[in-house]
Amino acid sequence: MIPDKAPGEDVYQATCDLRKEAHVPSFEKYKELYLKSVENPEEFWGDVAKDFFWKSKHTGQFLDYNFDVTKGKVYIKCMEGAITNICYNVLDRNVHDKKMGDKVAFFWEGNEPGDELKVTYRELLKQVCKMANVLKSLGVKKGDRISIYMPMVVELVVAMLACARIGAVHSIVFAGFSAESLCERILDSQCSLLITADGFYRGDKLINLKMIADDALEKCTEKNFSVQKCIMLKHLSKDGSLLPEGSQSPPAKRACSDLQEKQKERVKKIRPIPQVPWNPEVDLCWHTLMEEASDECEPEWCQSEDPLFILYTSGSTGKPKGVLHTVSGYMLYTASTFKYVFDHQPDDVYWCTADIGWITGHSYITYGPLANGATSVLFEGLPTYPDVSRMWEIVDKYQVTKFYTAPTAIRLLMKYGSGPVQKFTRRSLKVLGTVGEPINPEAWLWYYNVVGEKRCPVVDTFWQTETGGHVLTPLPAATPMKPGSAAFPFFGVVPAILNESGEELEGPNEGYLVFKQPWPGVMRTVYGNHERFETTYFKKFPGYYVTGDGCRRDKDGYLWITGRIDDMLNVSGHLLSTAEVESALVEHEAVAEAAVVSHPHPVKGESLYCFITLKDGFDYTISLEAQLKKQVREKIGAIATPDYMQNAPGLPKTRSGKIMRRVLRKIARNERDLGDVSTLADCTVIEQLFQNRCNTA
Questions:
Q1: Residues 6+ apart with CB under 8 A from 308
Q2: What is the pLDDT of residues 567-618, one digit of tens each?
Q3: Which residues, other chains included, contact 295 with Cβ-Cβ below 8 Å and sequence gap of 6+?
Q4: DSSP assignment of 386-455
Q5: What does the buried/exposed string (b/e) look like for 412-444 if buried means 16 or more CB atoms within 10 Å of the residue's CB?
Q6: Where does the record place the Acetyl-coenzyme A synthetase N-terminal domain (predicted)?
Q7: Which of 388, 383, 386, 419 is nearest to 403 (CA)?
Q8: Exposed site from 250, 277, 349, 417, fewest CB < 10 Å?
Q9: Hey, is 647 helix, strand or coil?
Q10: Mean pLDDT, to the nearest integer, of 546-575?
Q11: How many other C-beta atoms can be found within 10 angstroms of the C-beta atom of residue 342?
Q12: CB neighbours of 259 closer than 8 A, spacing ≥ 6?
């Protein structure tokens, strides 16, 4: 599976030599460690575990599992019997044991240039303890689910780690999602409390978060579920003057901790924000609660397989799946992937541009970096605001050494050429990373040549919400690079490529990407629905974890992700379910049927192309199209807004009534070679659909 030696042809080698200090200095060393991790996982992961604190050691097998649905219930257990706390390991251990209390944990960079904050590990620990005590005072206990709906602020990290400290399960919802999406996630995990903020700016655009949150809570009440309390952070409205009269608004005074004093002194260009709704029976002010809380809180000691968080990802049935990760395995895996994939060194300044509302932010902004005692940049804004040089300005400002972003952002910035990049030196950069979707070779080469000036290795990482961390990735000093390839498996991961019959394919080949055994960070279940977990990931090919992605292995053994095989789209690095979008469309009174397929997009990678069949009595108009796009935004979020819609009086279906999406994808791309259409019930719809095509040029 792993070649004897790395290929010497058709590959790129960065001129920046990391080998002397690298954790994995050569391909030979990578192969040695990989074989150890697969053949003797107990010893390999046991060595990783030695760096962490355990209240008690594990008693059984290091990894115990069943991937074969024909042999009983699917399960994965890691370090069963061990007791620890992940918050203690990422904060207390660094402050007290490693004497890193004064080290910067986060450089926070706000939406507006000049709006900034520096937070040390000691300050972060105090704030987390305060919020943990606040949650306990509100009756939150181990195992309770807490919904978090916040912008990219330090307090978001505080909230999630406070949950982890007391054994509560955080469920973070991306702040770009709609009230409907937030409500759906709160209901599914039965969250007892919501933590949110008044609002935030994303570039020039105001997001009135509290208003959306209130709408979500109202929808929950309509569905016979009431969230008892809502904690609101005053991020934009720094005093009570923006709250309605008589609303018993929280006092303007901020808590007098080091962090809060720093926040007072921040240079802030506060723009107008509409009045913030306030319900004194439900709403509580973050700042008032924190002012009264103690900054000491004993952690709740958790079993290794206790739940850590639920994070929702789109499902092919349309209903999002609550992916559940547990304490110990996730901690070990995010810590080790961060250390090796970014070749973390003590003096690094690391910047992941993702949002914490996605798994990338969970694993590689919060848990992985903090577990390694890293200093990170936490960015609230956009790569193009106030201008397209913003990212490179931040790189120089904080002397960023390791930079991790999405192909979507790279393609977006490519449009503006090399000029905005070259306004700044970027001499501090040592490793570049990509995440979220396969990167096309053209974008890879621009990133490597222009941003990294051929000095920096590019780690093109493949993983999923479900995997918890990187599963296929180059390692900076060890792996010769091929533009667009995810290269080789990470330690402990055993991939295979299957054909439609479930047979493993050897040598150069293409098929379904699966994994043959678990690694510590893999998901444990779909929250509240283990049957769906088994059906989605294990039923198609018993004995394997099925990723839902296609994969190609080349002659040198390098792996290339070819895209989703199921009915999912990857838009700007965010996985969307076609069924979920179709469901939102058909809720409109005019729509009889809808089919959604992917269409290539030069920046986003994929975009949504929608075929709309109307009910009798309705006409397809520009106004109706605008209504449908608005409905999708409200039901799912702006990220799911369709790029293209076309009138489809009929859809290509088999005689059994199944929509032939393969044919629709061809039509969307204006490709006349449709392949075998012998099972099509009505061939006349094809030409009509081609005639009604949107202009996608």
A1: 86, 164, 169, 170, 325, 326, 327, 330
A2: 667 888 776 878 778 888 988 999 988 899 999 998 888 899 999 999 889 9
A3: 126, 127, 129, 130, 257
A4: SSTTHHHHHHHHHT-SEEEE-HHHHHHHHTT-SHHHHTS--TT--EEEE-SSPPPHHHHHHIIIIISTTT
A5: bbbeeeeebbeeeebeebbbbbbbbbbbbeebb
A6: 30-90
A7: 383
A8: 417
A9: strand
A10: 84
A11: 30
A12: 119, 123, 124, 126, 127, 154
Q: Which residue has the tokens 């379910």?
A: 577
Is residue 238 pLDDT above 90, yes or no? no
Q: Count CB atoms within 10 A of the CB of residue 390.
A: 21
* SS3 assignment, position 690: helix
| Tally: H helices and E strands in the chain | 21, 30
DSSP-based three-state secondary structure for 134: helix
Centroid of chain to Cα 208: 22
Of residues 192, 139, 137, the one with CA closest to residue 169: 192
Sequence length of the chain is 697
Asked if the model's pLDDT at residue 518 lies above 70, the reply is yes
- Say which residue the tokens 């990338």 belong to: 360
Please say whether the beta carbons of 193 and 146 come within 8 A.
Answer: yes
For 513, the enclosing helix (H) or strand (E) is strand 509-515
Distance CA 216, CA 102 (A): 40
| Assigned token pair, 516 | 């043959």
pLDDT tens profile 300-325: 999 999 999 999 987 655 578 999 99
The span from the CA of 656 to the CA of 634, in Å, is 33
Q: How far apart are CA 469 and CA 534, in angstroms?
A: 20
Q: Rounded to whole angstroms, how far apart are CA atoms 635 and 626? A: 14
CB crowding 546-579: b at 16 or more within 10 Å, else e: bbbbbbbbbebbbbbbebbbebbbbbbbbbbbbb
Beta bridge partners of 560: 552
Residue with tokens 């392949």, as numbered in its chain: 675
Residue with structure tokens 């294990």? 538
The predicted pLDDT at position 272 comes to 57
Residue 679 has pLDDT above 80, yes or no: no
